[in-house]
Design goal:
Order of helices and strands: EHEEHEHEHEHEHEHEEEHEEHEHEHEHE
Structural class: alpha/beta
CATH topology of the largest domain: DHBP synthase
Number of helices: 12
Distance between the termini: 50 Å
CATH superfamily of the largest domain: DHBP synthase
Radius of gyration: 20 Å
Number of domains: 2
Shape: globular
Largest sheet: 12 strands, mixed
CATH architecture of the largest domain: Alpha-Beta Complex
CATH class of the largest domain: Alpha Beta
Oligomer: single chain
Mean pLDDT: 92
Amino acid sequence: MKTEILNSQNEEDFEKAVSILKNGGILAFPTETVFGIGADMNNESAVRRIYEIKERNFSKPLSLHVASLDVAKPYIKNVPDDAYILEKNYLPGPLMMIFDKTDLVPNYVTANLHKVGIRVPSNDIFQEIANRFDGIIVATSANKSGAFPASSLEQVLKSLDGSIEAVFDNDSVITGLASTVLDLTTRPYRVIRSGFITGEDISELLEKQVLLSDDGDISGTIKQLSKLNIIVVEGTRDNVLNKIKELYEKYSKEHEDKVGVLLADGSEEKTGILKHTKFLGSVNELDHMVESFFACVRAFENEKMDIVIVEGISREDRGWAVMDRICSYASEVISV
């Protein structure tokens, strides 16, 4: 099977996308964070294909991707008033809220859990698909489990070409920074995964305590699909950069110069110009730093590096979400 590329400027291609979903196919589409792959919630064989295509453990649930929270109402229950405050401020956008599910959500979607995640992407292409499709799309990120998420059409095709029916092109900016996942079934509410919207943002908006959790952590899973040893160094800036120089000198000798370094803009003034250095970008542009991380690591893979040493940034404000994302792919995190 050859994966078809759909044109977001072509009206007929949206109808084709809806037809694919109705007939049990798998469709890849952009969101404001990364590309996703989705299927019709009520087609069990199509949903199971998502797991098989991604090589995803069946114990991990999928989420419902909808055009608005209102569409999701028949599928969720015990919805707190706070959900509508969050909807007003953040949706559509990079926030997934977890609710108790109704019996209308099949157990094969939620891995037999009584909860379900609801995501309302703001991307215009997704919104158009969801509004035309008369069912519910269940989805997850468009990549093999444990691999870097896809933030471009080319990355989707590199990973999934031939295993899905179609993928939409995309002209919108995709950050690579994951959506925030907030569990509204617990008291206090719990941030399962940090993203563009921080726990502090949510706590301030709702005027109540919100806990942070590492339940969504996937540390080390990238090692299943990559030979890269990713080491993140975090702490005070001078200590971090001194440690990076130390590690670079050590590992360059041990690995015959197959060591890459990832620094924030300007840090080379402290470390000096180390061979195989790439840059994450400015700490003042955190929204683009995660995507820079993915792009640079992919480049290091192509250059046959063994080790990549990454400069950690401050975890203040949205820096927490950036570090949470980067560290989830690290084989080692060193605090100095």
